[in-house]
Amino acid sequence: MSTKRISIIQPDDWHLHVRDGSILKAVIPFSTRQMGRAIIMPNLIPPVADVQSALDYQQRIMSSISKQDSFQALMTLYLTDKTSIETVQQAHRAGIVAFKLYPQGATTNSESGVTDIFKLLPVLEEMQKLGILLLIHGEVTDSKVDIFDREKVFIDRVLIPIKKQIPELKIVFEHITTAEAVSFVETSDHYLAATVTPHHLLFNRNDMLVGGIKPHYYCLPIIKRELHRKALLKGVTGKHHHKFFAGTDSAPHMQHKKESVCGCAGVFNAPIALELYTEIFDKIDALDKLETFTSINGPKFYGLPVNNRQVTLVKKSYQVPDFYEINGEKIIPLLAGQEIAWQLIDDEETKF
After folding, report:
1. Which of 12, 13, 249, 282 is catalytic?
2. For the stretch 42-54, what's the b/e string if a residue is b when 16 or more beta carbons lie within 10 angstroms of its beta carbon?
3. Closest by CA position to 192, among listed 222, 235, 146
4. Contact 41, 16 (CB under 8 A)
5. What are the φ and ψ backbone dihedral angles of 170, each rounded to 5 degrees?
6. Residue 349 in this model has a pLDDT that exceeds 70
7. Half-sphere exposure of residue 202, counting CA atoms within 13 Å on the CB side?
8. Cβ neighbours for 289, distance < 8 A, ≥ 6 positions apart
9. Mean pLDDT across the stretch 75-95?
10. Would you list the DSSP string of 102-118?
11. Which segments of the chain are extended strands (E)?
12. Are 107 and 68 in contact (CB under 8 A)?
């Protein structure tokens, strides 16, 4: 008999974009409904590159939600060519948990990103010393490298050398997309882990391209071949599954910015992220591994306790809204208008 209901420790989102202003106010409730904590990405304009900016941003986030007693915004700083050892020390004192490495030009709002990570080795050494994590968007930006190979090349050119030179720096290889990344994480030491998004577990590049380009599937790193999707599924449920955890990389953009000539990269999956992870694990008969992936591996790697409450999902079809409206404009969610198989039960519905 198939499972119709599942309760798990409340999950966390270890990679989340919530933007700012009216968009922040509109999208953050989707994450607080599901997640106990979220790692907040710092790629605003201007980037969140100093401690005071991060604390101010955290305050704006927390003032935009009603669940302030049960949600924690974990703040990060944007690593730039100008990041100093003193900035790392200040971040440590302020409770900033990580720095984010965006290679310059790799993705949305990455213009201030690092041009040569090896010039920042003293900064990374200080992070290692103080126990601050490095979160990596793992793609090279060399125009001569095919976009589908940029993650693999990044491992060889950047990640392996960093691991050799600063071996005890805790690194999260974020939103991995390839079999090579899965293998590298599985065979690395306990100082390296990886996040995996629901959309990279669900789709291959045919889903994005066949029958017409689907802009709301477009993200960076870009969705890869089916063999890579299968490798991700095997990674999050296999022998080394403890090295992988949930990071949605939910990244909202207004419809006109996604459906344009330059089509912004980013998938808005926050409204249904946990439901999709549950559906994915259910389809491969791995629901027994879901809680470990969504709720345990991340806190363990970050050195934090697991959340102290549970959430419940039921296997009941649900149609995703066609859009969400913000100030007269639309944000299109992933799988807009389509049915998904699982639903999260709200708190008030669980009290029976």
Report:
1. 249
2. bbbeebbbbbebb
3. 235
4. yes
5. -75, 125
6. no
7. 22
8. 236, 237, 241, 281
9. 97
10. -BTTSSTT-TTSBS-GG
11. 5-9, 13-16, 37-40, 72-78, 98-101, 133-136, 171-173, 192-196, 244-246, 310-319, 324-326, 329-331, 339-344
12. no
pLDDT tens, residue by residue, 182-220: 999 999 999 999 999 999 999 999 999 999 999 999 999
Q: Pairing between strand 37-40 and 72-78?
A: parallel
Give me the pLDDT at residue 352, please: 23
Strands 98-101 vs 133-136: parallel, antiparallel or unpaired: parallel
Q: What are phi and psi of 316, to 5 degrees?
A: -150, 125
Q: What are phi and psi of 132, to 5 degrees?
A: -90, 135
Contacts of 317 (CB under 8 A, 6+ apart): 339, 340, 341
What are 316's two structure tokens? 């009941």
Query: Is 149 an active-site residue?
Result: no
Q: pTM of the entire structure?
A: 0.95
**b/e sequence 102-111, b meaning 16+ C-beta within 10 Å:** bbeebbbbbe
Span 117-125, average pLDDT: 97
Distance CA 43, CA 109 (A): 6
Which pLDDT score is estimated for 262?
A: 82
Task: Please check whether residue 137 is in contact with residue 110, taking contact to mean a CB–CB distance below 8 angstroms.
Answer: yes
For residue 261, the model assigns a pLDDT of: 87
Give the β-pairing of 329-331 and 324-326. antiparallel
